[in-house]
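Working notes for the structural subgroup meeting. M.R. asked for a predicted model of this chain before we commit to crystallization trials. I am recording the input and output together here so anyone reviewing the notebook later can reproduce the run.

Input as submitted:
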Amino acid sequence: MGPMNVPLALAERNVPRYTSYPTAPHFTAGVGPDTYRDWLGALLSEARLSLYIHVPFCTELCHYCGCNTRAIRKQEPVDAYAERLLEEIALLPGLNGRKLTHLHWGGGTPSILGPAWLETIASALASRFDLSELKEHAIELDPRRLDRSLVRALKTIGVNRASLGVQDTSPHVQQAIGRVQPFELVERAADWLREAGIVNLNVDLMYGLPTQTVRDVARSAELAASLGGQRMALFGYAHVPWFKQHQRLIDDAALPDAAARLEQAQVASETLQSFGYQIVGLDHFALPCDELSVAAREGRLHRNFQGYTTDEADALIGLGASAIGRLPQGFIQNAPDLGGYSRAVQAGRFATVKGLALSDDDRTRAAIIERLMCDLAVDLACFGGGFADEMTELRALAADGLLTIDGKRIAITERGRPYVRIAAAVFDTYLAASQKRHSAAV
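Returned structure, recorded in C-alpha cell form:
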C-alpha cells in the first residue's frame, strides 16, 4: 500500500472527537454525588465558571442524531423537566455570586422549553450567579421550531449567539435523514434573530449523510455562507446504529464510503474558505474578525463538549440529564436517563452517576491533545521527558506527510489536518479498549 492510500485507511479508524480527555466512555461510577459536592466546595472563590444546560427533548428525532434526546409531543414532560432544572440550580448554594463567563443551552432542542420557562430559568441563574462578565450566552436552535415570540424571549434573557442546525439543504438528503427543512425557513430564522439584535450566528453543516453527494455538500456550504453567520461547524456523520437505534432508519447502502467522505469534507472546506471563512482547528470555520479566529491565531483556542471555544473558565457546570461538568479535579456526568436524573434532583441531591478523577498523567496528555486539536501543533519539550513510544507512532504519520517532527515539536500539515484526531489518539492511553465506540476519523 503506497503512501497515498494510507490516509484513506486512516480515515476509517474509530477515534474520539476529543472534546475532552479522557473521553466520556471512560467515566466510572467511582465518582458520585458526594465527590461532586466536595469538588464544588473546593473551587476557589475567584474561579471563573461556565454553564451548560442540557434539554433532552425534540418534537421529532432526526435519523442522524447522536445526542441524548427523545421525541415528545406533550407539554407535561417539558414542564416537569424545567422544574427539575430549577431544583438542580438550587442545589448550588456554594456558588452564589460566582462569576459566570459562558452560558450554553444545548440538547435536543432547548428552545422547546418555551419563552416562559426560558425566562424563569434565566432569572434563577441571574439570582444565583454574577453575570456581569458574561461574554457569551448561546443557544442551539432548530429553524423549524422558531417564531417571533421565542426570538423576543431569547433577546430578553440575554442570548447573544445562536446556532442554527442546517446540516444539508438538498431535499433528497433531508428526506433521507428525516429533517425536511426548506432553506427559506433558515433564512427567515436568521433574519428574525438579527432583527432582534442577536447578530452572532453559527451554522451547523454535515457531510457523510445518506444519499449526499459532493455537489450537495458544496451547495449547502454556499447557501450557509449566504446567511452571513460569523461561524460554521462542519461535522462528519457518525453512523452508530448499535448505539443510537433510531439511526437504523438510515439505509447503510446509501452512506458515502470513506473516499467520498474525504472528498465531501474537502469540498465543503474549500467552499467555505472561498467565502472568506478561515478554518479553525479540525472542523470549525470563522470570519477573520470573529473571536474564534482571533483566538486560533493567538494560540488561545480551547476545545470542550460544545466544540471549539474561546471559553477560558476554570470550571464547567453541567445541568440537566446526561450533562457533563469539568472541574479542576476531574469530570462528572449526570444520569442520562430522565427517571434517574429526576429522582435524584427531587430528593435534593446531585444527579451525578459517573465521572473521572484526573491523574497528573491525564492532565499532561489532555493538554497535549488539546493543543494538537486547537493549534495543530505541540512542543513535547514543554511537557518533560518520555513519549518514546508516541514518537515512534508519530514518525509513521510523518512518513505519510500528515505531520512534521522537528526535535520534540509536532506540527500537523495541511494534508494531515483531516487526520488530526489520529495524531491526538497517539497520546490516548485509554483508547484501545473502546475504539469501536467512536466515530470514523474523517
